[in-house]
Design goal:
Blueprint lengths: L5 H11 L1 H6 L8 E3 L2 E3 L12 E6 L4 H5 L1 H9 L3 E8 L15 H19 L1 E9 L9 H15 L3 E3 L4
Parallel strand pairs: 3-4, 3-6, 4-5
Antiparallel strand pairs: 1-2
Helix pairs in contact: 1-5
């Protein structure tokens, strides 16, 4: 069994150019279902030109691992994309599994990863709210809601993609 670190996985996807290729891998075809699975292929042209997508994530790798294909596809179809990260990822991974270095080095590395993922997905801009990782319960829910509402209004988001635990 090989151990794969999150940062190494993201770097591998970035290096290989996998994420953008996923969005352009197949031309538009009629939707197909197999065993209850719906496969949606990219639409031809840019039918979503003028629409705005906001991809919300807690950590720098959430959208990349869970919804990168959807985000890349929507951007390819004309959406203007924005990527928002709630935490600064200061906790890193579990002991022995994370990136070696100081907390500051981990925060900076994840900030750079987030910026790079936004670029690869074709997002116009990325935002970092910089809340402490795994300390979100200490944040005022009203503060978080207000910050999210402000960003949604500023970018004029039509569609929001996020992880639902």
């Amino acid at each position: 069994m090989a151990l794969v670190l999150r940062r190494n996985l993201l770097s591998g996807l970035v290096t290989a150019g996998t994420l953008p290729a996923l969005a352009r891998s197949q031309p538009q075809q009629p939707p197909t279902t197999a065993g209850g699975v719906f496969l949606e292929h990219p639409a031809t042209g840019q039918p979503n030109k003028g629409k705005v997508l906001l991809a919300l994530q807690a950590h720098a790798d959430d959208i990349a691992l869970e919804a990168s294909g959807t985000v890349a596809k929507l951007v390819e179809e004309g959406y203007t994309g924005y990527l928002l990260r709630a935490t600064n990822d200061d906790m890193g991974d579990a002991p022995g599994l994370g990136t070696m270095g100081t907390i500051g080095e981990n925060v900076l590395g994840n900030e750079r990863d987030n910026a790079r993922i936004a670029e690869i997905l074709g997002c116009k801009r990325h935002f970092d709210l910089n809340y402490s990782n795994h300390r979100m319960a200490d944040v005022s829910l009203n503060e978080l809601i207000c910050r999210l509402i402000l960003i949604i209004r500023v970018v004029k988001a039509d569609t929001v993609v996020c992880w639902d635990p």
